[in-house]
Each structure stands twice: as C-alpha cells, then as structure tokens.
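Database export, one record per block. Field names are fixed; values are copied verbatim from the stored entry.
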Amino acid sequence: MMARPWKASQLLLAILVALVAFSYQQKRKTFISVREVNALEPPVPDTLDYVTDAYNKESEDVYNFRILRILKIEKRVTDHLEFRIRVEMRRTTCFKTEKSTCDVQEGELYKQIQCYFSVYVIPWFERYKILKKNCTNS
C-alpha cells in the first residue's frame, strides 16, 4: 500500500520536469533563416511605416520624424518574422497633428537621429510589435 503514493509522486515529478523542459524549448528561438533584405521586399514597407508611426507617437518632440536613409534591414524567420532595422531619421516641418509628407527641417530646428528597431511581425495578421528600440543623435 505504501508503494502507490510513492509512484504517484514520482509520476507527478516526471510530469513537472517534462513541462519545464517543454516550456524551455518553446522559449528558445531557432531561426530558420537570417538574411539581409531590401526595403521593397514585402512586408518591409509596412514595417517601416509602423516603426515611423510608433516612434512619432512615443516621441516628446512636437514635430514628426521620417526615415531619411535605410542603413540595414535584417530579416529573421522563425514562427514569425523579426526585422532588425537600422535607419537615419530627420525631424520634419510637420507637427504631430499633421499626417502629410513634409520636408525635413533645416537650420535651427535641424535634428537627425540614428535608430535601431527590432520588430516582431506577423504580416498575414498585420501584427507588429517593437521588441527593442534605440535612437541616438547623429
């Protein structure tokens, strides 16, 4: 009679170890492919629009910024896409309330930044999430 509770606790321990091991495997990212891509490859244009809008929403600047130059875009494929994007952005003449394409600022209000974005993308669901963002004055 004493053997049964012991076996039940062993079974529960084995299940717990299996669940921990499974959850660890789920957290590890195994990339199917990693390669540099150009800005015209789908869904890169939509991703660039997303990061520009997200940056402008979070920015405390009264003017919008826009991407002036793309330095590098790397695409990582797993069960989703991850884009690692490095761009130069400049302050425009448009205030945040304006949604048109504007010229970049010159003179006293000139400001250029270099940004790195890591973006989680599921394009078939139009789902985007910035995983990491780092912008510095250039």
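Remark 1: The longest strand covers residues 63-77.
Remark 2: Residues 13 and 35 are 42 Å apart (CA to CA).
End of record.
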